[in-house]
Specification:
The chain is of the alpha/beta class. The protein is 29% helix and 24% strand. Among the domains are: 40-180, Rossmann fold, CATH 3.40.50.980; 426-523, ANL, C-terminal domain (GMP Synthetase, Chain A, domain 3, 2-Layer Sandwich). Helix 7 crosses helix 8 (237-249). The termini are far apart.
Length: 524
Amino acid sequence: MAKSAHIDRFTSDRLPDRATWPEFIFDENVPPYPVILNAAEELLNNGYGDRPAIYMDDIVWSYDDLNCHANRVAAVLCEDYGLVPGNRVMLRGNNTPMLAALWYGVLKAGGIVITTMTMLRQKEIDGIIAVGQPDILIIEDNLPIDVFESCQGKAQNVISYSDMETAMKEKSGQFEAVQTASDDVALLAFTSGTTGLPKATMHFHRDILAMADSFAKYTLKPLPEDVFCGSPPLAFTFGLGGLLVFPARFGAAVVYFKGAGPDIMLDTIERFKVTTLFTAPTAYKVLAEQLEGRDFSSLKTCVSAGENLPLHISDKFYQATGIRLIDGIGATEMIHVFISASGDDIRPGSTGKPVPGYKAEIWDDQNNPLNDGEAGRLAIKGPTGCRYLNGDRQQAYVINGWNVTGDIFKRDQDGYYWFVARGDDIIISAGYNIAAPEVEQGVNAHEAVKECAVVGVKDEDRGMIVKAFVVLNEGYEGNKDLISDIQNFVKANIAPYKYPRAIEFIDALPKSATGKLLRKDLKD
């Protein structure tokens, strides 16, 4: 183990006790990494310097261009803002070349990157700031003006993209990357957890490469000629892998686009001849309905993750395109996908088999392996694994060296894994992880609401939707107008994707004799 390069010991001192870490596997599939490793330096000095790295509208950056921009970012952070290795830098912006340069630049400078979604409200951002304690915030200019203003004073330095770009012009484009250890923390990725409070998962420099050297290498099999594209933000580790790390690891290009919706995505596929697409099942369903008259002939690899892929969506997309979707399950705690299948190995309806480098088992409630065909908790180990900042929930997630994900699966006699259900209160809707307690807090804050409970219910289009069962205060009538008012209220206070798409008014919530909410009764 190399000596840490981090001068700021914030994350080093908050790693969970080593006895609670999962067992890590490095073998012929994913060999051990050098003890000195800077992931950004490794990804950008990839031997493909003059090849295109990023497209967006009329922008084309080669890998040499991207590396130069990242070096300038690193120089500004260190020379102008005093960043020292181990400092945290929070980024808030849409998927753009600039966000990519910032992400790489932070790592080159020895910093720890925290990337956040632009759709989060300030209350949610404040929760992330409280946990990650970033030293520097860098915020995209074209976000609502109050976003920048409301972050003032919440870090030592709060910088706009435009200020950053101005400072970058004064730098040469040369920067000697900090020689971080392969097991220095490189990023904090936040997961909702089951309580609605933000929890940070800690990933090392080696983890960033391992997700490419496992899932991408063996399942996607990318080539330098490939062009990646997709909808997930880089704040999601699903998007971070598919739309930043994977293309760079194999010398391919990525396309970023503004806006959302099937037309924009299809326009991008046509214009840039996209070969590899990343999005959620819900989006694939919509795309399949919009393909008539569109040129999607360049597509060859389409990855679905973020939620379980229903068989009817897989079949619908296959009938429309002749392309069988690659399903996969990953976790923020694991950084990316660990069970999947591609090509002739796909068994529609199944998630797939463990990605080379990973092992999987199905456990009962006493942590004993189950036989094929029996449903139980999914347990995983491989080259990546869970380390919660401050050890939050560490011993609940890591058991006997295995990562226990909270998903219920069963394995068939051929070794394929089949999704059954979530084992906790996370609702996965259109690829988003939504913590039921957080939505409950949002609904309960409405003046008409006495109490509420939130569950996920099946939905053909989104996989699941958020449904709130609401008990009203006296003097309020449960009607369509009140439903709309509660929904708008929630959307104004937490990220809009979390709002309850269905609301049912009931006289009382089901509870046990001790007063515990019987959420299962509502689900039933």
